[in-house]
Amino acid sequence: MATGLGSGLAPFMPGTFGTVVGIPLYLVFSSLSRPLWLLSVLAFSFLAWYVADEAEKLYGRKDAQCIVIDEIAGLQWTLFLVAPTWPHIVAGFVLFRLFDITKPFPARLFQDRLPGGCGVVADDLAAGVYGNIVLQLLIYFFRL
What we know:
single chain
């Protein structure tokens, strides 16, 4: 689970490959009612926290590159309450990766200061929220 069905073992850009694995999960979640969608994304985020924590122990290092369940969880927040169209998915994917890579405040602090799986996942959830805000604005103002 931590490696996103093995996508985190890619020899280059494992986070990007891991994010791709989050797209089918988003398509499943987006078919649910809004309350159930929210509960599912929250539950998956907590699962990611637990799995990332256990994976760090297994791999013996903080936020190993092969752990990508955090990217899968973060993408869920970027695409939360966004209609499942390809332009939305592509824009959300790009925005999430941009915010995940640049880690604007306070995302980097979350990664650096929170212990274990919480630190692994929290920065990606912050990137996901940033991505969702920008994506919602693009959809509203530019009819994306």
